[in-house]
Amino acid sequence: MKQHQPLAHNLLPDIIEAGCDEAGRGCLAGPVFAAAVILPDDFENPLLNDSKQLTERQRDQLRPIIEREAVAWAVSQVSPREIDEINILAASILAMHRAIDALAVVPQHLIIDGNRFKPYKDIPYHTIVKGDGKYLSIAAASVLAKTHRDEYMRRLANDFPQYDWQNNKGYPTAKHRAAIEHYGTTPHHRLTFQLLDQQLKLEF
Predict the structure, then answer these.
(1) Which residues contact 81 (CB under 8 A, 6 or more apart)?
(2) Taking the CB of residue 173, how many other CB atoms lie within 10 A of it?
(3) pTM for this prediction
(4) Which of 73, 104, 155, 196 could crosslink 200 through cysteines, CB 3.0-4.6 Å?
């Protein structure tokens, strides 16, 4: 794997800062997950990076390290029905709010992956485009959100094997869309998403 630049510890030093990220925003099925992580100032791990740049094995290696060494961490989700009701952007932000709310330690500042967020209580925040490749706490949040969501989708696949969720994790692969066309939808599908290719028509 290509070496990456070391990630920064904090955007604002000497305060309790939580990094936040989400996973599953582009999926056709399953919840959107988000994590919030507060790391100690001396946390170091040369492997930690944006979860999308890591292999599944590397993410699985990092997860217990992050959960053990973090000052505080939390993972939350927003259901497909909620996504359909409020849209995926609002649902992603809500998932992050729920994760922050579940932290055992109250952060003094938030750094958010991406460029969109809504204020959480009165805690100041910064949005950072590609922040999961720049700051350790956001990268840690990306790993936790991704691994917890993947684990959830693998369990769900046991009840719905025809959709291949154990491999695609709910993302819009050709096999997933073919299964929707053949078998229809489940309660875990996001009905406001384009579940089939545009030239195909799906009757709910």
Answers:
(1) none
(2) 15
(3) 0.92
(4) 196
* CA–CA gap between residue 115 and residue 131 (Å, rounded): 10
* Residue 1's pLDDT band (cuts 50, 70, 90): very low
Label the pairing between strands 125-128 and 109-113: parallel
| Nearest Cα to Cα of residue 62 among 133, 5, 166, 144 | 144
Residue 151, both tokens? 């684990």
Alpha helical stretches, state H, 102-164: 136-157
Q: Backbone phi, then psi, for 159, in 5-degree steps?
A: -90, -20
According to DSSP, the β-strands at 17-23 and 32-38 are: antiparallel
For residue 133, the number of C-alpha atoms closer than 13 Å in the C-beta half-sphere is 9
Q: How far apart are CA 59 and CA 65, in angstroms?
A: 10
Report the pLDDT value the prediction gives residue 61, as an integer from 0 to 100: 96
Position 199 pLDDT exceeds 90: no
Measured CA angle at 103 (ends 16, 12), to 5 deg: 20
